[in-house]
Amino acid sequence: MAKPRLLNMCGKIVPYEDARVHVLSTAMKYAASVYEAMRAYWSDADQQLYVFRPREHLRRLERSAKIARIPLPADAARLERETLEIIRANELREDLHVRLIVFVDTDDGGLASREPVGYVIAPIPTTRYFETAGLHVGVSSWHRTADNAIPARVKAAANYQNSRLALLQAKTDGYDDAIMLNQDGSVAEGPGYTLFLVTEDRPMTPSVTSNILEGVTRATLLTLFPESLGVSVEQREIDRTELYVADEAFFAGTAAEVTPILSIDRRPVGEGVMGPLTAKVRDAYFHAVRDGSAPHPEWRIPVYG
Ligand SMILES: Cc1ncc(COP(=O)(O)O)c(C=O)c1O
Questions:
Q1: Fewest C-beta atoms under 10 Å: which of 176, 206, 226, 249?
Q2: pLDDT of 264-302, one tens digit each?
């Protein structure tokens, strides 16, 4: 990982090495933290760095914090301002993964401790998350956590125990990645990305009540499919066997962007190559995140100037 020189730690700009929490913090002991991961895209043509949809990410952070009963230490407007400031302080002019973690920061707290709350904003130089033409995935025997147990709607460190179990099992079994079903047996999502299928030219994705994280990328694609391709996306419960008869499938997320799935449980998806609608919506997505002349300027918040 390329490390930035400076981080924002609780509103102060500090050297990377000085951003520390105690090993006995409640965040460490009980995973008492919620977070967001955004991307910023550098445009050579515009000589500009755009943070993609930070307002939507920060709105989700507010919701995660509310459900997790972790009081946010600063409002969304301040967190957005400080996100842009820490990028500028590092003078970064390249693609970034921006992580904003809010955590319970006491070394003397029990399970119910809620304060003090600390936060860190880390702008980390990044490239593609999946350096591949497509993924071979398996349906996991680990279920996505239920809304009434560890809600997938919350973006919390604790949720990624579930994701790690599925991903590590998939890799051990020779797959690139995993698709998780929910407790009802219908399709939920990948360990860190939502899932889209295309069957007979109809795109679909699991509904927000399928035990998924309500992805910012998902919301972006729900807009781009009708605007750029003239088809809308069906949001509904999806059966496991619909995975096996889909013509196209892809993961969507801030990290994954739009990454084709080429086989599921060793059954090829369609022809086993990226499908035409996936390719088109992926192009529209890459245009939207990086190009200042693309529709929806409100999605791209410029860092400089
Ligand atoms: C479990 C999970 N689902 C879905 C997503 C996709 O969400 P987004 O598009 O907001 O990055 C992520 C990534 O943050 C995730 O971790």
A1: 226
A2: 999 999 999 999 999 999 999 999 999 999 999 999 999
| Ligand 1 geometric centre to CA of 211 (Å) | 12
CA distance 99 to 83: 9
User: Measuring CA to CA, which residue among 172, 287, 299, 271 is closest to residue 260?
Assistant: 271
Domain boundary among the residues 98, 125, 152 is at 125
Q: For a pocket test of ligand 1, which of 41, 101, 164, 194 has the largest count of ligand atoms closer than 8 A to its C-beta?
A: 194
Q: What spacing in Å lies between the alpha carbon of 108 and ligand 1's midpoint?
A: 32
pLDDT of residue 108: 85
- pLDDT of 1 above 90: no
| 3 state DSSP class of 31 | coil
- pTM for the whole structure: 0.98
Positive or negative CA dihedral for 217, 220, 222, 228?
negative
